[in-house]
């Protein structure tokens, strides 16, 4: 894939945001992807949706995001952690989401594990941002699917009982949530993300 693509508006964007991408996908690239996030609900939602993406395209998941939010109580961690067997059966029948039993059960499990992280670190944000790569740890822009830091984070999450959080899934999560700025050089959004990261208050352990 090319590092940059020129959209119908004449602006250069990351190659994964192809010129023929629907408007909602371009908006996601321009206004969400790579901007730093500290909100626990958004962090939890994203890592769960990255798990659902496994084997699929992010465009497919993004198109169903509102359905996922409705199905999983807005990704309110405490509410999802209380889901039980009846909720699993309900979700397996929900045509608006990806009806993969293992991924549904993993999301509920991960909500319970997220509560444990909140209790230990004060917030999910404090935990995840403790894995923000140092400059010497950054991978070449848009060329890697994983990194040593994502491998460490993945290993720690799995040790803590999280599911569907392999290194590739975790790296995509880190890219999207702004722990790194992986917009290509020359992309119209890269400078905005850099500015947002420069002024972002990193969550700290309580």
Automatic annotation (TrEMBL):
UniProt KW GTP-binding keyword: no
Keyword annotations: Glycosidase, Hydrolase
An MF annotation (GO) of this entry: DNA-3-methyladenine glycosylase activity
UniProt entry tagged with the keyword Protein biosynthesis: no
InterPro entries, per the entry: Adenine_glyco, DNA-3mA_glycosylase, DNA_glycosylase
Pfam assignment, any one: Adenine_glyco
EC number: 3.2.2.20
Gene3D superfamilies xrefs: Hypothetical protein, domain 2
SUPFAM superfamilies in the record: DNA-glycosylase
Name this protein carries in UniProt: DNA-3-methyladenine glycosylase I
